[in-house]
Design goal:
Elements (H helix, E strand, L loop, with lengths): L1 H10 L3 E3 L1 H4 L8 H12 L4 E4 L1 H7 L8 E4 L3 H7 L3 E4 L5 E5 L5 E6 L15 H7 L3 H7 L8 E3 L4 E4 L3 H7 L1 E2 L5 H7 L2 H13 L2 E2 L1 H10 L8 H13 L3 H10 L3 H14 L1 H19 L6 H17 L5 H14 L8 H23 L12 H13 L9 H8 L12 H6 L1
Parallel strand pairs: 3-6, 9-10
Antiparallel strand pairs: 1-8, 2-3, 2-7, 4-5, 5-6, 7-8
The structure holds adenosine-5'-triphosphate and magnesium ion.
The site of adenosine-5'-triphosphate (ATP) has 12 residues, from helix 10.
Length: 419
Protein backbone atom coordinates (compact mmCIF):
# COMPACT_ATOMS: atom_id res chain seq x y z
CA UNK A 1 0.00 0.00 0.00
CA UNK A 2 2.75 2.34 1.03
CA UNK A 3 4.69 1.29 -2.02
CA UNK A 4 1.77 2.18 -4.31
CA UNK A 5 1.45 5.55 -2.65
CA UNK A 6 5.16 6.11 -3.14
CA UNK A 7 5.06 5.05 -6.76
CA UNK A 8 2.27 7.40 -7.60
CA UNK A 9 4.27 10.22 -6.03
CA UNK A 10 7.35 9.10 -7.87
CA UNK A 11 5.48 9.30 -11.14
CA UNK A 12 3.80 12.55 -10.20
CA UNK A 13 4.94 15.88 -11.47
CA UNK A 14 7.32 17.96 -9.42
CA UNK A 15 6.07 21.22 -8.00
CA UNK A 16 8.03 24.07 -9.60
CA UNK A 17 7.97 27.56 -8.14
CA UNK A 18 9.08 30.57 -10.15
CA UNK A 19 11.27 33.40 -8.88
CA UNK A 20 8.32 35.45 -7.66
CA UNK A 21 6.80 32.50 -5.79
CA UNK A 22 9.51 31.26 -3.41
CA UNK A 23 11.33 34.26 -1.94
CA UNK A 24 14.88 32.89 -2.36
CA UNK A 25 17.33 35.53 -3.43
CA UNK A 26 20.57 34.67 -5.21
CA UNK A 27 22.21 37.29 -3.00
CA UNK A 28 22.02 34.82 -0.13
CA UNK A 29 23.93 32.17 -2.05
CA UNK A 30 27.67 31.86 -1.67
CA UNK A 31 29.46 33.45 -4.64
CA UNK A 32 31.66 30.39 -5.27
CA UNK A 33 28.65 28.05 -5.17
CA UNK A 34 26.97 30.33 -7.73
CA UNK A 35 30.08 30.20 -9.93
CA UNK A 36 29.96 26.39 -9.94
CA UNK A 37 26.24 26.36 -10.70
CA UNK A 38 26.54 28.82 -13.60
CA UNK A 39 29.61 27.13 -15.06
CA UNK A 40 27.96 23.70 -14.99
CA UNK A 41 24.94 25.24 -16.67
CA UNK A 42 27.09 26.82 -19.40
CA UNK A 43 28.62 23.37 -19.97
CA UNK A 44 25.05 22.08 -20.58
CA UNK A 45 24.80 20.14 -17.33
CA UNK A 46 21.88 20.31 -14.93
CA UNK A 47 22.97 21.61 -11.54
CA UNK A 48 20.99 22.49 -8.44
CA UNK A 49 21.59 23.71 -4.96
CA UNK A 50 20.12 21.26 -2.45
CA UNK A 51 19.95 20.06 1.15
CA UNK A 52 20.25 22.35 4.13
CA UNK A 53 21.06 25.46 2.09
CA UNK A 54 17.71 25.49 0.28
CA UNK A 55 15.81 24.59 3.45
CA UNK A 56 17.53 27.32 5.46
CA UNK A 57 16.99 30.01 2.82
CA UNK A 58 13.29 29.16 2.68
CA UNK A 59 13.19 29.43 6.46
CA UNK A 60 14.87 32.83 6.25
CA UNK A 61 18.08 31.58 7.89
CA UNK A 62 21.64 32.00 6.67
CA UNK A 63 22.86 28.67 5.28
CA UNK A 64 26.18 27.42 6.61
CA UNK A 65 27.15 25.30 3.64
CA UNK A 66 26.03 24.96 0.04
CA UNK A 67 25.70 21.48 -1.42
CA UNK A 68 25.32 21.07 -5.17
CA UNK A 69 23.87 18.17 -7.20
CA UNK A 70 24.37 17.75 -10.89
CA UNK A 71 24.25 15.22 -13.72
CA UNK A 72 27.97 15.80 -14.36
CA UNK A 73 30.09 12.84 -13.23
CA UNK A 74 32.88 13.40 -10.67
CA UNK A 75 35.49 12.92 -13.41
CA UNK A 76 33.87 15.66 -15.49
CA UNK A 77 33.85 18.03 -12.53
CA UNK A 78 37.54 17.35 -12.04
CA UNK A 79 38.11 18.13 -15.70
CA UNK A 80 36.25 21.44 -15.75
CA UNK A 81 37.18 22.90 -12.35
CA UNK A 82 40.42 23.58 -10.55
CA UNK A 83 41.36 22.17 -7.16
CA UNK A 84 38.88 19.30 -7.18
CA UNK A 85 39.31 16.28 -4.93
CA UNK A 86 37.23 13.17 -5.48
CA UNK A 87 36.20 11.59 -2.22
CA UNK A 88 33.98 8.69 -1.09
CA UNK A 89 34.35 4.98 -1.48
CA UNK A 90 30.82 3.76 -1.96
CA UNK A 91 29.66 6.81 -3.85
CA UNK A 92 32.20 9.18 -5.28
CA UNK A 93 31.67 12.91 -5.07
CA UNK A 94 33.70 15.99 -5.84
CA UNK A 95 34.99 18.50 -3.34
CA UNK A 96 35.80 21.81 -4.98
CA UNK A 97 38.29 23.79 -2.88
CA UNK A 98 38.42 27.58 -2.69
CA UNK A 99 40.64 30.04 -0.87
CA UNK A 100 40.27 30.33 2.88
CA UNK A 101 39.68 26.59 3.24
CA UNK A 102 36.19 26.75 1.76
CA UNK A 103 34.99 23.45 0.26
CA UNK A 104 31.86 23.02 -1.83
CA UNK A 105 30.51 19.53 -2.27
CA UNK A 106 29.32 18.65 -5.75
CA UNK A 107 27.53 15.29 -5.95
CA UNK A 108 26.15 13.52 -8.99
CA UNK A 109 22.42 12.69 -8.94
CA UNK A 110 22.02 9.21 -7.56
CA UNK A 111 19.23 6.77 -7.02
CA UNK A 112 18.11 5.04 -3.87
CA UNK A 113 20.22 2.02 -3.07
CA UNK A 114 19.76 0.12 0.17
CA UNK A 115 22.75 -2.18 -0.21
CA UNK A 116 25.54 -1.03 2.04
CA UNK A 117 29.23 -1.63 1.65
CA UNK A 118 31.93 0.16 -0.28
CA UNK A 119 32.29 0.05 -4.01
CA UNK A 120 35.88 0.02 -5.17
CA UNK A 121 36.80 3.13 -7.10
CA UNK A 122 37.81 1.11 -10.13
CA UNK A 123 34.40 -0.57 -10.30
CA UNK A 124 33.12 2.03 -12.72
CA UNK A 125 30.16 -0.11 -13.85
CA UNK A 126 28.90 -0.51 -10.32
CA UNK A 127 29.43 3.21 -9.72
CA UNK A 128 27.38 3.94 -12.89
CA UNK A 129 24.41 1.92 -11.58
CA UNK A 130 24.26 4.22 -8.53
CA UNK A 131 23.68 7.36 -10.61
CA UNK A 132 20.11 8.49 -11.16
CA UNK A 133 17.80 11.27 -12.28
CA UNK A 134 17.02 14.42 -10.27
CA UNK A 135 13.71 12.85 -9.21
CA UNK A 136 15.45 9.67 -8.04
CA UNK A 137 18.02 11.75 -6.24
CA UNK A 138 15.32 13.65 -4.35
CA UNK A 139 13.67 10.36 -3.38
CA UNK A 140 16.79 8.79 -1.99
CA UNK A 141 17.18 11.62 0.54
CA UNK A 142 15.82 11.27 4.05
CA UNK A 143 13.64 14.21 5.11
CA UNK A 144 11.27 16.03 2.74
CA UNK A 145 12.34 19.56 3.70
CA UNK A 146 15.98 18.58 3.02
CA UNK A 147 15.29 17.29 -0.49
CA UNK A 148 14.38 20.47 -2.37
CA UNK A 149 16.31 21.66 -5.41
CA UNK A 150 17.04 25.25 -6.37
CA UNK A 151 18.04 26.10 -9.92
CA UNK A 152 20.04 29.29 -9.48
CA UNK A 153 20.21 30.07 -13.21
CA UNK A 154 16.44 30.25 -13.68
CA UNK A 155 15.68 30.97 -10.01
CA UNK A 156 13.22 28.10 -9.83
CA UNK A 157 12.52 25.85 -6.87
CA UNK A 158 11.82 22.19 -7.59
CA UNK A 159 10.03 19.88 -5.17
CA UNK A 160 9.63 16.18 -6.00
CA UNK A 161 8.81 14.99 -2.48
CA UNK A 162 6.30 17.34 -0.86
CA UNK A 163 8.94 19.27 1.06
CA UNK A 164 7.32 22.64 0.38
CA UNK A 165 3.99 21.56 1.89
CA UNK A 166 5.85 20.22 4.93
CA UNK A 167 7.74 23.48 5.29
CA UNK A 168 4.46 25.34 5.25
CA UNK A 169 2.91 22.97 7.77
CA UNK A 170 6.08 22.95 9.88
CA UNK A 171 6.27 19.16 9.68
CA UNK A 172 9.18 16.74 9.63
CA UNK A 173 8.39 13.81 7.37
CA UNK A 174 10.51 10.98 6.03
CA UNK A 175 10.57 10.32 2.29
CA UNK A 176 9.21 6.88 1.36
CA UNK A 177 8.45 4.12 3.85
CA UNK A 178 9.62 5.49 7.17
CA UNK A 179 10.15 2.10 8.86
CA UNK A 180 12.30 0.89 5.97
CA UNK A 181 14.28 4.11 5.78
CA UNK A 182 15.06 3.96 9.51
CA UNK A 183 15.99 0.32 9.19
CA UNK A 184 18.37 1.06 6.30
CA UNK A 185 20.03 3.85 8.26
CA UNK A 186 19.05 4.39 11.91
CA UNK A 187 21.04 7.66 12.03
CA UNK A 188 18.05 9.15 10.19
CA UNK A 189 16.14 8.88 13.50
CA UNK A 190 18.67 11.25 15.06
CA UNK A 191 18.49 13.53 12.01
CA UNK A 192 14.69 13.77 12.31
CA UNK A 193 15.01 14.92 15.92
CA UNK A 194 17.78 17.38 14.97
CA UNK A 195 15.91 19.15 12.18
CA UNK A 196 12.62 19.17 14.11
CA UNK A 197 14.40 20.74 17.09
CA UNK A 198 16.39 23.28 15.11
CA UNK A 199 13.44 24.45 13.03
CA UNK A 200 10.88 24.09 15.82
CA UNK A 201 8.82 21.76 13.59
CA UNK A 202 6.51 18.94 14.69
CA UNK A 203 7.40 15.36 13.83
CA UNK A 204 4.81 13.55 11.73
CA UNK A 205 2.83 11.02 13.84
CA UNK A 206 3.79 8.04 11.73
CA UNK A 207 7.45 9.06 11.96
CA UNK A 208 7.08 9.35 15.74
CA UNK A 209 5.71 5.83 15.93
CA UNK A 210 8.61 4.50 13.89
CA UNK A 211 11.11 6.35 16.07
CA UNK A 212 9.76 4.55 19.12
CA UNK A 213 9.83 1.21 17.30
CA UNK A 214 13.31 1.56 15.81
CA UNK A 215 15.27 3.82 18.18
CA UNK A 216 17.18 0.84 19.65
CA UNK A 217 18.83 0.32 16.24
CA UNK A 218 20.94 3.40 16.85
CA UNK A 219 23.03 1.45 19.35
CA UNK A 220 24.25 -0.84 16.56
CA UNK A 221 25.45 2.02 14.31
CA UNK A 222 29.13 2.62 13.82
CA UNK A 223 30.57 4.41 16.86
CA UNK A 224 32.62 6.70 14.60
CA UNK A 225 29.53 7.74 12.63
CA UNK A 226 27.62 8.41 15.87
CA UNK A 227 30.53 10.51 17.05
CA UNK A 228 30.27 12.64 13.88
CA UNK A 229 26.61 13.36 14.72
CA UNK A 230 27.41 14.00 18.38
CA UNK A 231 30.20 16.38 17.41
CA UNK A 232 27.92 18.20 14.96
CA UNK A 233 25.13 18.72 17.49
CA UNK A 234 27.20 19.60 20.54
CA UNK A 235 29.17 22.18 18.54
CA UNK A 236 26.09 23.71 16.95
CA UNK A 237 24.79 27.03 18.24
CA UNK A 238 21.46 25.39 19.06
CA UNK A 239 22.68 22.28 20.88
CA UNK A 240 20.13 22.43 23.70
CA UNK A 241 16.88 21.85 21.78
CA UNK A 242 18.42 18.92 19.89
CA UNK A 243 19.57 17.14 23.06
CA UNK A 244 16.21 17.89 24.66
CA UNK A 245 14.60 16.16 21.68
CA UNK A 246 16.96 13.19 21.95
CA UNK A 247 16.10 12.92 25.64
CA UNK A 248 12.35 13.26 25.10
CA UNK A 249 12.29 10.46 22.53
CA UNK A 250 14.46 8.19 24.68
CA UNK A 251 17.42 8.12 22.30
CA UNK A 252 20.18 9.12 24.71
CA UNK A 253 20.48 5.71 26.32
CA UNK A 254 21.09 4.18 22.87
CA UNK A 255 23.81 6.73 22.13
CA UNK A 256 25.67 7.39 25.38
CA UNK A 257 24.68 4.34 27.45
CA UNK A 258 24.53 4.89 31.20
CA UNK A 259 25.04 8.62 30.92
CA UNK A 260 21.97 8.71 28.68
CA UNK A 261 20.03 6.46 31.01
CA UNK A 262 20.84 8.87 33.83
CA UNK A 263 19.69 11.88 31.81
CA UNK A 264 16.50 10.08 30.85
CA UNK A 265 15.53 8.92 34.33
CA UNK A 266 16.81 11.71 36.58
CA UNK A 267 14.93 14.88 35.72
CA UNK A 268 17.03 17.07 38.00
CA UNK A 269 20.30 15.93 36.38
CA UNK A 270 18.90 16.56 32.94
CA UNK A 271 17.56 19.98 33.98
CA UNK A 272 21.09 20.82 35.14
CA UNK A 273 22.48 19.72 31.78
CA UNK A 274 19.95 21.88 29.95
CA UNK A 275 20.90 24.85 32.14
CA UNK A 276 24.62 24.43 31.36
CA UNK A 277 24.05 23.81 27.65
CA UNK A 278 21.86 26.89 27.36
CA UNK A 279 24.66 29.01 28.80
CA UNK A 280 27.08 27.59 26.24
CA UNK A 281 24.60 28.10 23.38
CA UNK A 282 24.28 31.71 24.45
CA UNK A 283 28.06 32.07 24.50
CA UNK A 284 28.27 30.58 21.00
CA UNK A 285 25.61 33.04 19.82
CA UNK A 286 27.80 35.85 21.21
CA UNK A 287 30.73 34.68 19.13
CA UNK A 288 32.61 32.66 21.75
CA UNK A 289 33.87 29.35 20.35
CA UNK A 290 34.18 26.80 23.15
CA UNK A 291 36.54 23.95 22.34
CA UNK A 292 34.97 20.56 21.86
CA UNK A 293 36.66 18.99 24.91
CA UNK A 294 35.18 21.77 27.05
CA UNK A 295 31.71 21.21 25.60
CA UNK A 296 32.09 17.49 26.25
CA UNK A 297 33.25 18.03 29.83
CA UNK A 298 30.19 20.23 30.43
CA UNK A 299 27.93 17.70 28.72
CA UNK A 300 28.99 14.83 30.97
CA UNK A 301 29.36 16.88 34.18
CA UNK A 302 25.79 16.48 35.55
CA UNK A 303 26.12 12.71 35.17
CA UNK A 304 29.62 12.56 36.64
CA UNK A 305 29.34 15.12 39.44
CA UNK A 306 27.67 12.86 42.03
CA UNK A 307 30.06 10.03 41.17
CA UNK A 308 33.02 12.32 41.83
CA UNK A 309 31.73 13.37 45.26
CA UNK A 310 33.63 10.71 47.26
CA UNK A 311 36.97 11.50 45.57
CA UNK A 312 39.46 13.06 47.95
CA UNK A 313 42.49 13.25 45.69
CA UNK A 314 43.02 13.98 41.98
CA UNK A 315 44.07 10.31 41.69
CA UNK A 316 40.63 9.26 42.95
CA UNK A 317 38.92 11.58 40.48
CA UNK A 318 40.99 10.09 37.64
CA UNK A 319 40.07 6.55 38.61
CA UNK A 320 36.36 7.39 38.98
CA UNK A 321 36.22 9.09 35.58
CA UNK A 322 38.09 6.26 33.88
CA UNK A 323 35.71 3.68 35.30
CA UNK A 324 32.60 5.75 34.55
CA UNK A 325 33.49 6.03 30.85
CA UNK A 326 34.62 2.41 30.65
CA UNK A 327 31.44 1.04 32.22
CA UNK A 328 29.01 3.39 30.49
CA UNK A 329 28.49 1.17 27.45
CA UNK A 330 28.36 4.13 25.08
CA UNK A 331 27.62 3.41 21.42
CA UNK A 332 29.22 6.68 20.41
CA UNK A 333 32.96 6.28 20.08
CA UNK A 334 34.65 9.10 21.98
CA UNK A 335 38.25 9.25 20.73
CA UNK A 336 40.78 8.30 23.38
CA UNK A 337 42.52 11.66 23.23
CA UNK A 338 39.21 13.47 23.75
CA UNK A 339 38.42 11.32 26.79
CA UNK A 340 41.86 12.10 28.19
CA UNK A 341 41.31 15.86 27.73
CA UNK A 342 37.84 15.73 29.25
CA UNK A 343 39.25 13.81 32.22
CA UNK A 344 42.06 16.31 32.70
CA UNK A 345 39.60 19.22 32.57
CA UNK A 346 37.21 17.67 35.06
CA UNK A 347 39.91 16.56 37.50
CA UNK A 348 41.23 20.13 37.57
CA UNK A 349 37.75 21.64 37.86
CA UNK A 350 36.98 19.32 40.80
CA UNK A 351 40.24 20.39 42.44
CA UNK A 352 39.21 24.03 42.13
CA UNK A 353 35.72 23.38 43.48
CA UNK A 354 37.33 21.64 46.48
CA UNK A 355 39.64 24.61 46.97
CA UNK A 356 36.63 26.92 47.07
CA UNK A 357 35.11 24.78 49.80
CA UNK A 358 38.23 24.33 51.93
CA UNK A 359 40.16 27.53 51.34
CA UNK A 360 43.24 25.47 50.60
CA UNK A 361 44.72 25.77 47.17
CA UNK A 362 47.90 24.80 45.38
CA UNK A 363 48.61 27.53 42.91
CA UNK A 364 51.10 25.31 41.12
CA UNK A 365 48.07 24.04 39.18
CA UNK A 366 48.24 27.29 37.22
CA UNK A 367 51.06 25.68 35.26
CA UNK A 368 48.75 22.98 33.87
CA UNK A 369 47.95 23.44 30.20
CA UNK A 370 44.23 22.96 30.86
CA UNK A 371 44.20 25.44 33.75
CA UNK A 372 42.42 28.30 31.95
CA UNK A 373 39.55 26.26 30.45
CA UNK A 374 39.21 24.26 33.68
CA UNK A 375 38.96 27.53 35.65
CA UNK A 376 36.19 28.61 33.30
CA UNK A 377 34.36 25.31 33.85
CA UNK A 378 34.74 25.69 37.61
CA UNK A 379 33.17 29.15 37.41
CA UNK A 380 30.36 27.86 35.21
CA UNK A 381 29.60 24.92 37.52
CA UNK A 382 29.70 27.09 40.64
CA UNK A 383 27.87 30.15 39.40
CA UNK A 384 25.66 28.65 36.70
CA UNK A 385 26.58 31.49 34.39
CA UNK A 386 29.45 32.25 32.05
CA UNK A 387 32.34 34.24 33.52
CA UNK A 388 32.65 37.86 32.39
CA UNK A 389 35.86 39.86 31.95
CA UNK A 390 38.35 39.09 34.72
CA UNK A 391 36.14 36.46 36.37
CA UNK A 392 37.29 32.90 36.84
CA UNK A 393 38.18 30.44 39.56
CA UNK A 394 40.82 32.82 40.89
CA UNK A 395 38.41 35.72 41.35
CA UNK A 396 35.97 33.41 43.12
CA UNK A 397 38.71 32.15 45.42
CA UNK A 398 39.97 35.64 46.28
CA UNK A 399 36.45 36.81 47.01
CA UNK A 400 35.85 33.89 49.37
CA UNK A 401 39.29 34.00 51.01
CA UNK A 402 40.60 37.56 50.75
CA UNK A 403 43.41 36.88 53.23
CA UNK A 404 44.67 33.68 51.64
CA UNK A 405 48.02 33.82 49.94
CA UNK A 406 47.66 34.61 46.25
CA UNK A 407 49.47 32.82 43.48
CA UNK A 408 51.96 35.63 42.91
CA UNK A 409 52.79 36.67 39.35
CA UNK A 410 56.06 34.76 39.22
CA UNK A 411 54.32 31.42 39.59
CA UNK A 412 52.23 31.46 36.42
CA UNK A 413 53.06 29.11 33.54
CA UNK A 414 54.52 31.85 31.34
CA UNK A 415 57.03 33.05 33.90
CA UNK A 416 58.07 29.48 34.56
CA UNK A 417 58.89 28.90 30.95
CA UNK A 418 60.94 32.11 30.82
CA UNK A 419 63.18 31.03 33.68
P1 LIG B 1 22.94 20.86 7.93
O1 LIG B 1 24.22 20.71 7.15
O2 LIG B 1 22.44 22.23 8.09
O3 LIG B 1 22.96 20.09 9.22
P2 LIG B 1 21.83 19.33 5.75
O4 LIG B 1 20.39 19.06 5.40
O5 LIG B 1 22.64 20.04 4.71
O6 LIG B 1 21.78 20.13 7.11
P3 LIG B 1 23.81 17.26 5.69
O7 LIG B 1 24.12 16.28 6.75
O8 LIG B 1 24.81 18.27 5.31
O9 LIG B 1 22.47 17.96 6.15
O10 LIG B 1 23.38 16.43 4.41
C1 LIG B 1 23.11 17.03 3.15
C2 LIG B 1 21.90 16.38 2.50
O11 LIG B 1 22.16 14.99 2.23
C3 LIG B 1 20.66 16.36 3.39
O12 LIG B 1 19.94 17.56 3.27
C4 LIG B 1 19.90 15.18 2.86
O13 LIG B 1 19.16 15.53 1.72
C5 LIG B 1 21.00 14.21 2.45
N1 LIG B 1 21.30 13.23 3.51
C6 LIG B 1 22.19 13.39 4.52
N2 LIG B 1 22.22 12.30 5.31
C7 LIG B 1 21.34 11.43 4.78
C8 LIG B 1 20.92 10.11 5.13
N3 LIG B 1 21.42 9.49 6.20
N4 LIG B 1 19.99 9.52 4.33
C9 LIG B 1 19.49 10.15 3.24
N5 LIG B 1 19.84 11.38 2.87
C10 LIG B 1 20.75 12.02 3.61
MG1 LIG C 1 24.76 20.41 4.97
Amino acid sequence: MDELKNLSRLDGEAIVLKKTEHGISRRNIDADALKILFRLHSLKFTAYLTGGAVRDMLLGKTPKDFDIVTDARPGQIKKYFQRVFIIGRRFRLAHVHFSGGKVIEVATFRKHSSSAGPVAAQERDVQETLYGTPREDAWRRDITINALFFDAVTSTLIDYVGGLADLRQKKIRIIGDCGERFHEDPVRIWRVIRYAARAGFAIDENVEREIMAKRHLLAACSGARLFEEFYKDLNHAAATPVFEGLQRYGLLVHIIGRAGENYQTDAARFARLVQLMEIEDCEKANGFRPKFDELCAIFFWPWLEPQLAPATTPGDSHAILKKAFQDAGMSVLLPKSLRAQVTELLVLAVKMIRALRSGRVRWSMRARTQYVPAARLCFLFEKSRAPEGGESFESLFRQAYPHAQGPGPERGPRQRRLK
